[in-house]
Amino acid sequence: MYSIETKSLTKSFGDLVAVNDISFSVEKGEIFGFLGPNGAGKSTTMMIFTTLLKPTNGNALVGGFDVLKNPKQVRENIGFVQQETTVDEYLSGRENLLLQAKLNHIPKNEINQRIDEVLDLIELSDKQDEAVVTYSGGMRKRLDIAGGLLHHPRVLFLDEPTVGLDIQTRRKIWQYIKKIHTQFDMTIFLTTHYMEEADSLCDRIGIIDHGKIQVIDTPKNMKNDLGNEIISLVIESNNNSDSFLLELKKIEFIKKINEDDSKLTLFTSNGTEVIPKIFQISSELGIKIKSISLTQPTLDDVFISYTGHEIRDDDSKYNRRREHAKMKRLRQ
Ligand SMILES: Nc1ncnc2c1ncn2[C@@H]1O[C@H](COP(=O)(O)OP(=O)(O)OP(=O)(O)O)[C@@H](O)[C@H]1O
């Protein structure tokens, strides 16, 4: 049983194809993550799933409902926690949730009990009567997430749930997301550009770049597919560099080689066998090895192997995102 199914989904803004013919499904109860850099098409896809944008082509079913034909039913079955916090700073935490409960048409006699339940879950009961202006960034995010849970959605959408937060707060939020997932037994679809977040939270990850899905798999399988070891090699280039690369490609156990100028990354299933062979070939061809190291693959390596570039995780993103979101709102 799928919570999200999409086929040939495409979204263009003028000449720009932000989401380019993507098809995939998310199983009921899964935590599924879209991992990709700025501008990859993550938020656009999520906005289509949450009925805030219409696709140019293709379609999607969310919670079994068609986003184009049954948008109201889709909205009743989902929670959407946007990247920007939507809480009102001058209201208390509880007042914010009351407002959210009314917007979600939660029956009056259930409101207080549901608010108590989510406040307890995200451990904000003690601070519920304080104005949000006094809350830290992490507490505001928790309150935002709580607001998305009040109507007990079947599918929860989290757009970059920890962007702009420090690493300790980020890890705390991951714990809350895991707790919510278990307690509410819901499907979670999240977007992130943090490798560690995708690795820690997601059952499966879709790597998205330039509007296209490059691969979908479990983090573990993705890493295993690269081989269990990585040899990073920096050489002093000379006329034999091309032959050196050709010879390396012939070595048994090497699954893939990425080249970045004089830096070579070799994905292998048996580093200890491969390293002596590298030294042998380099001495035969007169190639000087400046450095060599053997490590275990990370999700960063997986990302590079599928996209050919790093995810560019820079701190300026948060402000850029705010500008971006403002632009989106203005254009709608
Ligand atoms: N309303 C819009 N009008 C025009 N272009 C848009 C609009 N929304 C998004 N885009 C463009 O579509 C592309 C994908 O944007 P999207 O926000 O989906 O990316 P993303 O992966 O979520 O990255 P980011 O985290 O930077 O938002 C980008 O090039 C973006 O500039």
TrEMBL record:
Name the PROSITE patterns on file. ABC_TRANSPORTER_1, ABC_TRANSPORTER_2
Q: Which PANTHER family match?
A: LINEARMYCIN RESISTANCE ATP-BINDING PROTEIN LNRL (PTHR43582:SF2)
Please state the Enzyme Commission number of this protein: 3.6.3.19
Q: Where in the cell is it found?
A: Cell membrane
Tell me one GO molecular function of this protein: ATP hydrolysis activity
Topology in the lipid bilayer: Peripheral membrane protein
Cite the source lineage: Archaea, Nitrososphaerota, Nitrososphaeria, Nitrosopumilales, Nitrosopumilaceae
Q: SUPFAM superfamilies recorded for this chain?
A: P-loop containing nucleoside triphosphate hydrolases (SSF52540)
- Quote the InterPro entries the UniProt record gives: AAA+_ATPase, ABC_transporter-like_ATP-bd, ABC_transporter-like_CS, DrrA, DrrA1/2-like_C, P-loop_NTPase
Superkingdom field: Archaea
Q: Say yes or no: keyword Hydrolase present.
A: yes
The family classification in the record reads:
Belongs to the ABC transporter superfamily. Drug exporter-1 (DrugE1) (TC 3.A.1.105) family.
Give all residue intervals belonging to the ABC transporter domain. Answer: 4-235
**Gene Ontology biological process terms in this record:** daunorubicin transport; doxorubicin transport
Quick one: where is this thing mainly located? membrane
Q: Name one GO cellular component term.
A: plasma membrane
Q: What are the record keywords, sorted?
A: ATP-binding, Hydrolase, Nucleotide-binding, Transport
Recorded protein name is Trehalose/maltose import ATP-binding protein MalK
Pfam families named among the record's database cross-references: ABC_tran, DrrA1-3_C
